[in-house]
Design a protein that fits this description.
- The protein is built from 19 helices and 13 strands.
- The chain has about 450 residues and is of the alpha/beta class.
- The protein has an 8-stranded mixed sheet, sandwiched between helices.
- The protein is globular.
């Protein structure tokens, strides 16, 4: 394919060189003439493993050249990769000035040199927040092109997962390829660029592709911060943190796995909250600052409060709650987030009915009974014997269980507002219904 790459920094330079080495005809574009001259001389404008010899080779064969002329690049390509920077503003917001400028230039060049029947595809590789492409860049492109994105010009978002220092290796052996496509033809053009590379290809809506890069980087930062905080606590307590983490990392069932990484409701139970409090307290006694660990429980509480606010926004007062124990298949109510949710709603004066097939007040004993008598002493008058009793009572139903009897009874369309705390199996279909509200979807 004939490809133009806008921006010859780390991402653009590596993308241009690697695509050229795969057999594509590539034109690099940059406003900095020094970078343009370096590439045309077969030299890399960035320091990166393998990039020097790769650029020298693809320039020598004629597969890669560079220019500062946007129109020349557009006329000489069928796909454009936008790899310009998106730095932070002083207040932390995303700077989109370079993205906007290059989109204007590409649009103007396309309008000037468009040929009947030709369709250029603009692929945004720069990191940008969800909504940036569709709400900001597509309107700019359509204005300058004088046409419709997805019809007259292709548009896609293709985030990169390149690490500085190993970016050439990462390009040829990617963990995944993500293509946010405005329409299938746009996605096809991007897919063809990477034909032959390993790894799974995900073709998703444009905002999803934008969000994935942030999910990755936020989690990477979280992992590093978690390991460093835990290491500091271990050192203060006289424990070898690397031995601890070796064992931690060996657990591929719960730790290094998809476990617990699906958005849903708050956590609870007799272990997680208690152990987090103990660890943070031990760190404080040892005078070790652990802001990540110290904010896990407050974050959990904030997420629970979001469910309360969803109920408040309905303006309705009769509420049904399905589920009460801290996890399915148990009657353990200790530090259950659903108990906390019920307590907050009851405290705010909501007319509440609760059903959990596993919870019977008569069967609660020991610490379990003591906990509920302390936190929700009115439970006896709130518990309903059946799903139907809750549905007949409620104007708003909060669903915190996957009990088949509950799921099969939940109405569609007219009926109570459904506040989904667990992502119901038919959540996607329900999202089009006016009475459905999902938590953190």
């Amino acid at each position: 394919m004939r490809v133009s790459v806008f921006g010859l920094g780390y991402v653009g330079c590596v993308s241009a060189a690697c695509l050229a080495s795969m057999g594509h005809e590539v034109i690099g574009v940059d406003v900095n003439q020094v970078k343009v001259d370096l590439v045309n001389d077969g030299k890399a404008p960035v320091v990166e493993e393998r990039i020097g010899e790769l650029i020298a080779e693809v320039v020598r064969t004629g597969a890669l050249r560079a220019t500062g002329d946007v129109r020349e690049a557009i006329m000489g390509s069928e796909v454009s990769l936008v790899c310009v920077g998106t730095p932070s503003e002083p207040n932390g917001s995303l700077c989109t000035a370079y993205l906007e400028r290059v989109t204007e230039e590409i649009g103007a060049a396309l309008a000037e040199g468009a040929k009947q029947g030709d369709r250029h595809t603009v692929v945004f590789r720069s990191t940008m927040l969800p909504g940036t492409c569709l709400n900001l860049l597509v309107p700019i492109l359509e204005k300058y092109v004088g046409g419709t994105a997805g019809v007259d010009v292709g548009v896609a978002v293709n985030p990169e997962f390149l690490r500085e220092g190993t970016s050439v290796r990462d390009f040829f052996d990617p963990p995944k390829t993500v293509i946010g496509e405005l329409d299938p033809a746009s996605g096809d053009a991007v897919t063809a660029l990477y034909d032959g590379l390993p790894g799974e290809v995900f073709r998703v809506p444009v905002p999803t592709a934008e969000a994935i890069k942030y999910a990755d980087n936020a989690f990477h930062g979280l992992k590093i911060g978690f390991a460093n905080e835990l290491g500091a606590v271990c050192q203060a307590l006289g424990v070898d943190s690397h031995q601890v983490m070796d064992v931690f990392l060996a657990d591929r069932k719960l730790n290094i796995s998809p476990a617990y990484l699906r958005p849903g409701f708050a956590f609870g139970g007799s272990c997680l909250p208690k152990d987090l409090r103990s660890l943070v307290h031990a760190a404080q006694r040892a005078d070790v600052s652990v802001p990540i660990l110290a904010h896990v429980l407050p974050s959990n509480s904030d997420h629970l409060q979001r469910a309360v606010e969803l109920v408040e926004r309905t303006g309705k007062r009769r509420v049904g709650l399905f589920g009460l124990s801290f996890k399915p298949g148990t009657d353990d109510l200790r530090e259950s987030p659903l108990v906390e949710l019920a307590e907050r709603l009851f405290g705010k004066g909501y007319d509440l009915k609760i059903h959990d097939a596993n919870v019977s007040l008569a069967r609660l004993i020991g610490a379990n009974r003591e906990y509920i008598e302390t936190r929700l002493p009115h439970l006896a008058q709130l518990l309903a014997d059946s799903v139907d009793e809750v549905l007949e009572h409620a104007e708003v139903c909060l669903v915190g269980t996957r009990d088949p009897a509950v799921l099969s009874a939940l109405p569609h369309g007219d009926g109570p507002v459904i506040v989904d705390l667990i992502r119901l199996p038919d959540a996607e279909a329900r999202q089009t219904e006016p009475g459905y509200v999902g938590l953190a979807w």
